[in-house]
Specification:
368 residues, Rossmann fold, D-amino Acid Aminotransferase, Chain A, domain 1, Dna Ligase, domain 1, 3 domains, 14 strands, binds adenosine-5'-diphosphate, binds magnesium ion
Length: 368
């Protein structure tokens, strides 16, 4: 047998979605076909020991990883649904430093990087830029598409510019708030009932549903605790759906996966609904009309192309009274077996291991 492809699964890191990333990475390591791939779990937190933004706890862990010292596993936090706590703690104990594998000198010990990061320093183009410098092939989108998709204000500009229907919105920074509070709030009030979210964040962190003018200012301030820009959007009422798009190996083609319908048992698809299977039903194929399905799939493919995504993506939409409206594009969607994109792939007859194989194969093709 020729040598197996060595896959460095980059995961962990320092984002607010660190723990979700640990769970995704572990699942990927366990399901990459063993006859073809040799996985290594590499924590990118090790690259960040000097980063001034790290908490003392994360810094200590980053240094211990770098020095390959034995270290305490960070316990899973209380806000984490029970289902993934064990995975997170197991992943913490298996992870090794990503530094040698990402060096551009000597044998790095890996042939390709599989990005299982979520949120800041992973989904936002930063690690992709780093990987471009080292010349190591990596899964998923490149620098620009990643950065654009992560930034909901910027991606809305691009997608609306391409004629893709999205909720009306207004954005504001902390400086806007201190300079022109009343003007900013007046603009936001026009969008009521509204959704307020940080521009660059995921997993519904820092988000609020706002029904009255009185609740707007504090919702904007909460979003601004997570990012330097907040986005206020009109709230679209309807059926929440999501559409995965994957590349086809050896061609420029894209395959839209079956539509998944999301039915949260909570006010909206918040952090708990996303990661606790008891808090949300996910139904595939979605119970929507054929026309709505085709429109949603075509919007997801157009959104993927408009942002210049590669490999795979997942577009979140709401099927409102006037048809599907795009909320956002995820360039590194959740990759546990129960995550939305793997579920949709399974419904299309693509088992999880085959999906992972396809994603790595696409990463090894020359980038267009
Ligand atoms: N404009 C909107 N109208 C109605 N619901 C929304 C809107 N924007 C977001 N939501 C709800 O919040 C969730 C998270 O929003 P999303 O924009 O997808 O950000 P995230 O990156 O956190 O997933 C959505 O899945 C949906 O339930
Ligand atoms: Mg989303």
């Amino acid at each position: 047998m020729t040598h197996r492809i060595r896959v460095g699964i980059l995961f962990g890191g320092a984002s607010e979605e660190r723990q979700i990333s640990l769970a995704s990475g572990l699942m990927i390591a366990e399901h990459l076909p063993k006859d073809l791939y040799e996985p290594k779990l590499l924590d990118t937190l090790a690259l960040m020991a000097q980063h001034p933004g790290l908490s003392p706890e994360l810094r200590e862990k980053a240094i211990a990883l770098q020095e390959s010292r034995p270290r305490k596993a960070l316990p899973a936090t209380d806000d984490l649904p029970a289902g993934i706590r064990d995975q997170v703690e197991r992943a913490e104990s298996l992870a090794v430093s990503a530094t040698q594998a990402l060096s551009s000198r000597g044998d790095r010990g890996i042939d390709v990087a599989f990005l299982a990061l979520h949120g800041k320093y992973g989904e936002d183009g930063t690690i992709q830029g780093f990987l471009e410098l080292t010349g190591l092939p990596y899964t998923g989108s490149g620098v620009l598409a990643s950065a654009l998709a992560m930034d909901k204000v910027m991606s809305k500009r691009v997608l609306r510019g391409e004629g893709i229907k999205m909720p009306r919105g207004a954005h504001m920074s902390r400086a806007d708030l201190s300079r022109d509070l009343s003007i900013v709030l007046a603009r936001a009030h026009e969008l009521l009932p509204a959704v307020v979210k940080p521009s660059k964040q995921g997993s519904s962190l820092g988000m609020s549903m706002v029904d009255s003018p009185e609740a707007m200012e504090s919702a904007v301030r909460i979003a601004l605790d997570h990012d330097d820009q907040a986005l206020v959007e009109e709230r679209i009422f309807g059926t929440e759906i999501t559409v995965g798009v994957i590349g086809v190996v050896g061609s420029e083609e894209l395959q839209a996966l079956p539509v998944v319908e999301i039915v949260p048992k909570r006010e909206f698809f918040d952090y708990l609904a996303k990661y606790d299977p008891d808090q949300c039903d996910e139904i595939c194929p979605a119970r929507i009309s054929e026309a709505a399905r085709l429109t949603a799939q075509s919007l997801a493919v157009r959104a993927h192309r408009s942002l210049g995504c590669s490999g795979y993506s997942r577009t979140d939409l709401i099927l409102g009274p006037n048809g599907p409206v795009v909320l956002e594009v995820n360039t590194l969607p959740g990759m546990t077996m129960n995550s939305l994109l793997p579920k949709a792939a399974a419904a299309a007859g693509i088992p999880f291991g085959d999906l992972l194989h396809r994603i790595v194969s696409l990463a090894l093709e020359p980038r267009g």
